[in-house]
Amino acid sequence: MKVTPTMRRPFPLDHVLYASPVLITECKRELDDVREALTKDLAPRNTVEKLYVADLANLVWEKQRLRRVKTAMWNKEMKGAVKRVLGNLPVDQWWLKEANNVWLTDPDFRGNVILLLGKFGLDESAIEAEAMRWVAQDLEMLDRMEASLETRFQKTLRAMAEYRQAFADQARIASNRIIEAEAAPVINLLEKRQIKKAD
Questions:
Q1: For the segment 66-106, what is each residue's pLDDT rounded down to a tens digit?
Q2: What pTM was estimated for this model as a whole?
Q3: pLDDT tens across 160-176, in order?
Q4: d(Cα 179, Cα 130) in Å, to the nearest integer?
Q5: What secondary structure, in 3-state letters, does the chain show?
């Protein structure tokens, strides 16, 4: 059976407006929470404003994603940094491997690593510096991406505000025309009465 345009079921507009940029590893509920909070704060009045809110929610989500990526990248590189820094010191290879594996998760073992570093005139910042040396370029790229998202977020907010102002101006002009059109017959009647009195 051929489906004609009149036979198609209309699908919900919000489904189109709020198409999800969520990846498989991410939680869609968190994006929905961001969207709901923005909808509550900005109270979109029509489809155009809903589009602005959807864009804003997606931009916030993209910024959060970049921050998660930066954290994951930093944590991953911290492990490599532990191995590289301790690898230059006279330590047991098993202990080095263990330190590398539990640096982020075992506070006691971490304390032992910091004590060892202290014996060689180093501290935890030696590991952070080594990690930074390896991820600095990638972090700088992610920072630029985040700054670009922030610029787009601010532009979208301004565009929504300008749209609302333009709409309010149009509504005011239209209502003034209606008021003037309704007032005109009253003025004409008053003028006619004044003319009769003058006669």
A1: 998 898 888 888 888 888 888 888 888 888 888 878 877 88
A2: 0.67
A3: 999 989 888 887 887 77
A4: 72
A5: CCCCCCCCCCCCHHHHHCCCCCCCCCCHHHHHHHHHHHHHHHCCCCHHHHHHHHHHHHHHHHHHHHHHHHHHHHHHHHHHHHHHHHHCCCCCHHHHHHHHHHCCCCHHHHHHHHHHHHHCCCCHHHHHHHHHHHHHHHHHHHHHHHHHHHHHHHHHHHHHHHHHHHHHHHHHHHHHHHHHHHHHHHHHHHHHHHHHHHC
